[in-house]
Amino acid sequence: MNQQNPFDNSGKPRLLIVGASTRAAAFSAVRAGWQPVCVDQYADQDLREIAEVIPKTEAPAHWIESLYQFPTLDWIYTGGMENHPDLIEQINQKHRLRGCGPESLYRARDPFYLERLLKDKPIQAVPCRPVGFIPDDNTRWLHKPLKGAGGMGIRFLDSISPDIVINGDCYLQRYQPGIPLSALFIAFRQTTVLIGVCLQLIGNAALNAEAFQFCGGMTVSPALAPLRNPLEELGRTVAESCEIQGIFGCDLLLDPTQTDSLWLNEVNPRYTALTELLELQHRTPLLDWHLTACRSFEEHQIDTTTAPKLQKCVERAEKQPLPYISKGILYASRDSVSSQTVGNRLDFRPRYHIPECGDIPCAGTAIPAGSPVCTIYGVGENHESCLKSLADRIAWFERHFDLQACQDKTASSAFSKLWPVKTSENQFFTGFFSSRNESGSFLED
User: Fold this and answer.
1) Where in the chain are all domains bearing CATH 3.30.470.20?
2) Please, what is the Cα angle at 238 between 234 and 239, to 5 degrees?
3) What's the pLDDT score for residue 421?
4) CA distance 406 to 263
5) Where does this protein have coiled-coil stretches (predicted)?
6) Across all residues in the chain, what is the average pLDDT?
7) In this predicted model, what pLDDT tens digit does every residue of 96-119 receive, in sequence order?
8) What are phi and psi of 246, to 5 degrees?
9) What is the reported pTM?
10) 336-337/366-367 β-pairing
11) What is d(CA 392, CA 214) in angstroms, rounded to the nearest whole number?
């Protein structure tokens, strides 16, 4: 007997999703009862299994013209699109945006605006300066693109040549050592709900990532008790001032040398890469809540009950024994070609089943060195077992894609990079603090 595909949403309303990578959001859409239509740079195998896919490989004019052929759809965007408000405006001419428009983006993505906004708040933004600023002390500064994504293009100011520094599309941000976290919120018209917190993996050698490059994360929800109130205030302040609608993330740095010290690094006013981890952990269709939240901003909408329902849903989930879930984006250490057999590892499971892998390239796809290969997941009863699960799968997929430049790169060596220090649960955060990337911390490499 053929196994019924639980992701068969034929006959369900279609949701347009546009971004560099849309697979995670597409699976969220299916869990929420929608049929995704995706404009995607990679058009991976597992995305094609569940969605109508428009490859985002040509000039925008081509795929935007394709979107005009559809009837008017609700639409959202994922990573990278926040840097292209002009494209968002073009899509809005035909389709109904459920999320942040260009005016909201200008504020949420302006580091100088956020610094002023949070000046007297419990969680402040990391100080920024315009290019051309000359430090007068030993403080280290980062040179960052104003329209960056995934940590690409970030460098230490003292490591780059002066002709690059004068680039007007960049800014300087004080280097703030600490543990990178990401808090996820959903903004309703009346209030903003904190969904949870994830730890971020940044520039990790186990995943062949470059310095500062985002390469995954792990759930740490429920939020640490001393941080909950400051995080909730941060979410409300940013959402109200930037007029954010629906899902958004705040990237943070926790400085364990100071009591409960959190700094805001940046705001991602969209479905984030770690949204799916909290969705799988809470077993809650977060994209459904996102769409409901966006509708609450429509004229004549008066709904004072939905946000409290979501809050109770989150609180109820946090009282359960939640699994720890991690994901790692594996980058190619050398040129490779996707094999045929990886597709055999796909299986359709219950909606909140935690997969082994995602973003699976189609057979025969050329994967240049430095490009993402696939996303790998780990799960466990605690942080250590969760990362052990992730390390085992990293080793398997590196062998599968023939990415291992040396044969001694095993699950054990991957785990040592993901979990370099044996530490108790109570010492988890302080055990992974690294101020100069000298301790081998899996958070900063």
Assistant:
1) 178-202+212-318
2) 115
3) 56
4) 39
5) none
6) 87
7) 999 999 999 999 999 999 999 999
8) 80, -150
9) 0.90
10) antiparallel
11) 20
d(CA 371, CA 377): 18
Phi first, then psi, for residue 375 (nearest 5°) are -105, 135
Interval 150-193: pLDDT, tens: 999 899 988 776 665 556 689 999 999 889 999 999 999 999 99
Chain centroid, CA 277 distance in Å: 9
Q: Which amino acid is at 8?
A: D
| Contact assessment for residue 44 and residue 53, using Cβ atoms and an 8 Å cutoff | no
Joined together, the tokens standing for residue 339 give 């094999």
Which amino acid is located at 399 in the chain? R
Whether the predicted pLDDT of 1 surpasses 90: no
Domain 178-202+212-318 sits in CATH 3.40.190.10: no
Backbone φ and ψ for 11, nearest 5 degrees, come out as 90, -10
- In angstroms, the CA 106 to CA 100 distance is 10
Please state which architecture CATH assigns to domain 324-431: Alpha-Beta Complex (3.90)
Q: Which two tokens stand for residue 216?
A: 């995954």
Q: Which spans in 203-245 are helix H?
A: 225-242
Q: Which two tokens stand for residue 50?
A: 């569940």
